[in-house]
């Protein structure tokens, strides 16, 4: 009797995270909503929210840590995306460098080593994509810059 094995093995979705320094002070304060602040306070509040979004969290070794603060950052990113989408002339000369810094801090990182030790190329028909563990925040940072 001859046993045959399937050449197609279902692989689990893998999560990976690039290498970056996790911020030491990760306790974030929920700031007032931009739409509820007075017009002369909005620019300063927007900059405060951008600076909060420069805090980096560990999504890999301890994904359940800092959940409250991760949610504060996610909510601030979401609010800024919505605000930039619905308002005109939001990005002022003072906000622009802060926004570029937030983009750099969140997105420029060293890639993890290849998960395939044999060095074979990624095959989209056979291999599951590697998911970035910090994607809940990274997606919103990308959306902010696409607006």
From TrEMBL:
Pfam families xref list: B56 (PF01603)
InterPro entries: ARM-like (IPR011989), ARM-type_fold (IPR016024), PP2A_B56 (IPR002554)
Family to which this protein belongs: Belongs to the phosphatase 2A regulatory subunit B56 family.
Protein name as annotated: Uncharacterized protein
Species whose genome carries this gene: Ranatra chinensis
Taxonomic lineage of the native organism: Eukaryota, Metazoa, Ecdysozoa, Arthropoda, Hexapoda
């Amino acid at each position: 009797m001859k046993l045959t094995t399937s050449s197609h093995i279902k692989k689990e979705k893998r999560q990976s995270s690039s290498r970056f320094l996790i911020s030491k002070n990760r306790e974030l304060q929920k700031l007032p909503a931009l739409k509820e602040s007075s017009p002369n306070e909005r620019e300063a509040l927007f900059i405060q929210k951008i600076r909060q979004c420069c805090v980096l969290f560990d999504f890999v070794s301890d994904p359940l840590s800092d959940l409250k603060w991760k949610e504060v950052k996610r909510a601030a990113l979401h609010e800024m995306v919505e605000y930039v989408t619905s308002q005109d002339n939001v990005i002022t000369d003072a906000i622009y460098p802060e926004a570029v810094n937030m983009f750099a801090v969140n997105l420029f990182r060293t890639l993890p080593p290849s998960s395939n030790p044999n060095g074979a190329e990624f095959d989209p028909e056979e291999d599951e994509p590697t998911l970035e563990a910090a994607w809940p925040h990274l997606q919103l940072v990308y959306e902010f810059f696409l607006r």
